[in-house]
Design goal:
The protein is mostly beta strands and 301 residues long. The protein contains three helices and 16 strands. The strands form four sheets. Strands 1, 7, 9, 12, 13, 15 and 16 form a seven-stranded mixed beta sheet that branches. The longest helix is centred in the N-terminal third of the chain and has 10 residues, at 7-16.
Length: 301
């Protein structure tokens, strides 16, 4: 599912942001960053027309991508009828549309898996354990940002990550070092100011979509505070130890006008860079794949 096809979801997320945005500045807008230039793997099993498309071996959440993946809620419901769930019960799984509602800490976050997406569409990017130190970079719609939330899980132990924020103006790049907790042992500690759990309490699923292990798995992330006056343009992530890392996406809170022009060859997406209303701030959609550049929406709640 491209960002263009998610236009309706991004608009609805404006309403979901009401509680979160009450304390936000009037210019704040939520930006779902387009990371289509980076994501290249399928870590989540999805379903369409009653047919399950399993996560792809080599692109999972642990075992260097070979052992396990996640499933959507609709997939889990079908797998329960097939006797593949723990104790024959339905537990917690990923949202069918990849949308996570806003909380008091996090804005609404749209990830790149969905039951309505083409079955070949990428969802994540793997930084494999066996390949040692590796790096990747993704562009960010240029703006000043109050927060940037980078969604990453790590397995086979905590991940040693060096994250660099690159700016388009004379602002010096920021380099920060993190030790992201393992996704399989409950993820981030409660109240942690840097690491957070987007979702936690799931089982993981083997190569035959059999549910296994304890319900202590999820998607974690890092909360980053960019330089307040710098025009952020890209983010570089370097993994330096022997963990297995899965990158899911990034969502920012912009404090200025957000660049919305589409990238050549990729098209544009829906941009709902709304004005702040009585109930909350509008969201800014990221550039999408295969669409046309969207116009700014009112986005008021």
């Amino acid at each position: 599912m491209t960002f263009a096809s998610r236009a309706g979801i991004l608009t609805v997320s404006t309403l979901a942001l009401c509680a979160f945005a009450r304390s936000a500045a009037a210019a704040d807008a939520v930006v779902q960053v387009d990371v289509s230039s980076v994501i290249d793997g399928r870590t989540v099993s999805t379903i369409a027309g009653g047919t399950i498309t399993p996560w792809t071996t080599g692109q999972g959440v642990d075992g260097d991508g070979n052992a396990d993946g996640f499933v959507t809620t609709a997939v889990e419901a079908v797998l329960q009828t097939m006797g593949k769930t723990e104790g024959g019960k339905v537990g917690l799984a990923l949202p069918d549309d990849g949308m996570f509602a806003a909380t008091t800490r996090l804005p609404a976050i749209q990830l790149h898996f969905s039951n309505t997406a083409p079955i070949t569409s990428p969802q994540t990017h793997q930084v494999h354990q066996a390949m040692g130190s590796q790096t990747f970079t993704f562009d960010v719609p240029q703006a000043t940002y109050r927060k940037m939330f980078v969604l990453i899980t790590t397995s086979e132990g905590s991940a040693k990550l060096t994250v660099t924020l690159n700016y388009a103006d004379a602002t010096a790049a920021q380099t920060m070092m993190y030790t992201l907790p393992d996704y399989g042992i409950g993820g981030a500690a409660a109240g942690d100011a840097v690491y957070f759990n987007l979702i936690m309490g799931m089982h993981k699923w083997g190569t035959n979509d059999n549910e296994g292990d304890s319900a202590t798995h999820g998607i974690t992330g890092i909360e980053i505070n960019p330089t307040a006056t710098g025009m952020l343009k890209s983010i570089t992530v370097l993994k330096t130890n022997g963990s297995h890392v899965v990158f899911w996406g990034a969502t920012g809170i912009a404090t200025s006008a957000v660049a919305t022009s589409g990238t050549a060859g990729s098209g544009g997406g829906s941009t709902d860079a709304g004005t702040d209303g009585a109930a909350g701030a509008g969201t800014a959609g990221a550039t999408g794949t295969g669409g046309t550049t969207g116009s700014a929406g009112a986005g008021t709640a």
